[in-house]
From TrEMBL:
Lineage, broadest ranks: Bacteria, Bacillati, Actinomycetota, Actinomycetes, Kitasatosporales
Biased composition (Basic and acidic residues): 35-52
Any GO molecular function: phosphopantetheine binding
Residues in AMP-dependent synthetase/ligase domain copies: 2-227
Superkingdom to which the source organism belongs: Bacteria
GO biological process: amino acid activation for nonribosomal peptide biosynthetic process; secondary metabolite biosynthetic process
UniProt protein name: AMP-dependent synthetase/ligase domain-containing protein
Length: 241
């Protein structure tokens, strides 16, 4: 809130007391006066005149902070056009569609969540929000992937290694519906994927290593891992171009 310096805060009666005093005007959505005011408003989308001007692709879509690995985390303003560019570029390599089920595994404070949120929404798929405790319990998460027939999974390598271990310990033969596993957020060691490769192969799901930084909007490189890259990895994992 200090970085954003908002002029208005939109909240609920339950959450309002927890907000710091920023000097911003506070709109409490479930306040009776607010509810009466909203009930008299149109239920259609606002026009450019209502907004005070047109929204363009260059307008900010969100502010998200860097990891702070070189100091204090910095807020990055990311425009709508960058998010569209992300998925237009991905379309040349990945075939997403309305039958896909994506997980929202990561915190919305981590830019991997932008990929997880807008991927299904832009392609007409289904977004599955993973409960906090499930995301931190690999066996529960594995069961959720099977039960909900998840097809697109985005993971940091460290989280995926825990999932591999959970599947090995589980021993069940029930198949997964995954089409893609997308790695990001950390360096990937291909050799550690051998247990997964021996069970699932490298085609379904396809294993995709992607790389990017907050300022470039999630991912900017793409590399599809092959059995050769996993069985005989070099000193560094390819991150593509």
């Amino acid at each position: 809130l200090q970085d954003a310096a908002p002029t208005h805060l939109v909240t609920t009666a339950e959450l309002a007391p927890a907000l710091p005093d920023t000097g911003a005007a506070v709109l409490v959505l479930d306040d009776p006066d607010t509810e009466r005011e909203l009930a008299g408003r149109p239920d259609t989308d606002p026009t450019d005149r209502d907004r005070g001007g047109p929204i363009t692709p260059g307008h900010p879509a969100y502010t998200i902070h860097t990891s702070g690995s070189t100091g204090r985390p910095k807020g990055v303003l990311v425009p709508h056009a960058n998010v569209i560019r992300l998925f237009e570029a991905a379309a040349a390599h990945l075939d997403f569609g309305p039958t896909d089920v994506w997980t929202l595994f990561h915190s919305y404070a981590f830019d991997f969540s932008v990929w997880e949120l807008w991927g299904p929404l832009l392609h007409g798929g289904r977004l599955l929000i993973v409960p906090h405790t499930t995301a931190r319990t690999p066996r529960e998460f594995l069961a959720l992937l099977r039960r909900e027939r998840v097809t697109v999974l985005s993971q940091t390598p460290s989280a995926f290694h825990q999932l591999i271990q959970a599947e090995q310990e589980d021993g069940a033969e029930e198949p997964l519906s995954l089409r893609y596993v997308v790695f990001g957020g950390e360096a990937l060691e291909p050799a550690r994927l051998r247990p997964w490769l021996s069970r699932h192969g490298a085609d379904r799901p396809a294993l995709i290593n992607m790389y990017g930084i907050t300022e470039t909007t999630v991912h900017v490189t793409h590399h599809r891992l092959t059995p050769a890259a996993i069985d005989h990895p070099g000193p560094l994992s390819p991150i593509g171009t």
